[in-house]
């Protein structure tokens, strides 16, 4: 769901009058603060979610290959390193945030790779257009206090806005922040900012 929202907002940033800023936050931290649990913890919901993701991929025109053990992979794969990697890129080369986020998603969902592994992160960075020197530099940054603090601060900021999961989109309308949760809320977001929804591929 995070990815569908990312894709749609990236498509609409040139269509709507919006200033899109991608802010990597740590989902587990948000869930913990809100007392929320992953959908897969409730088997029926997990089952539904995997079917729904397939339908949404078709609707949003996003390549996706689901497999039977996806729920297990979601629960057992730590995304902390990946989020720190994306955070470090956001701090140094923000124009790579969009392609990098996209490549991480494709790696996990379509290629079923373990995104917590260093080699995988470097391969993803290369795929997103980062030079191997830059990717290596980013990798060295992920254990730095600056990167850890930035990710923590962004996560705390999301919690302050009322986030309890992802995707969370905060829209500032007339100086008022409004939180939208879920990939099916972009249409509603558009109506609030006075922009026309033209489907998932405008």
TrEMBL record:
Enzyme class: transferase
Superkingdom field: Eukaryota
A Gene Ontology biological process term: glutathione metabolic process
Keyword line: Transferase
TM stretches of this protein: none
Organism: Dryobates pubescens (Downy woodpecker)
Cross-referenced SUPFAM superfamilies: Thioredoxin-like
One Gene Ontology CC term in the entry: peroxisome
Keyword flag Transferase: yes
Record EC number: 2.5.1.18
Family annotation (PANTHER family): GLUTATHIONE S-TRANSFERASE KAPPA (PTHR42943), GLUTATHIONE S-TRANSFERASE KAPPA 1 (PTHR42943:SF2)
UniProt protein name: Glutathione S-transferase kappa 1
């Amino acid at each position: 769901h995070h990815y569908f929202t990312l894709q749609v907002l990236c498509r609409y940033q040139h269509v709507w009058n919006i200033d899109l800023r991608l802010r990597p936050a740590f989902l587990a931290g948000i869930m913990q603060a809100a007392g929320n649990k992953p959908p897969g913890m409730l088997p029926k919901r997990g089952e539904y979610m995997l079917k729904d993701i397939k339908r949404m991929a078709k609707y949003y025109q996003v390549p996706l290959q689901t497999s039977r053990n996806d729920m297990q992979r979601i629960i057992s794969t730590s995304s902390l390193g990946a989020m720190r990697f994306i955070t470090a890129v956001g701090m140094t080369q923000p124009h790579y945030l969009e392609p990098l986020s996209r490549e991480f998603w494709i790696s996990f969902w379509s290629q079923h790779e373990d995104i917590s592994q260093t080699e995988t992160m470097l391969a993803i960075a290369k795929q997103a257009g980062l030079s191997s020197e830059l990717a290596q530099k980013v990798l060295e940054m992920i254990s730095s206090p600056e990167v850890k603090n930035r990710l923590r601060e962004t996560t705390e900021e999301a919690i302050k806005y009322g986030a309890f999961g992802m995707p969370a989109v905060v829209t500032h309308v007339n100086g008022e922040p409004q939180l939208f949760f879920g990939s099916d809320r972009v249409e509603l977001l558009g109506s609030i900012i006075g922009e026309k929804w033209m489907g998932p591929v405008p």
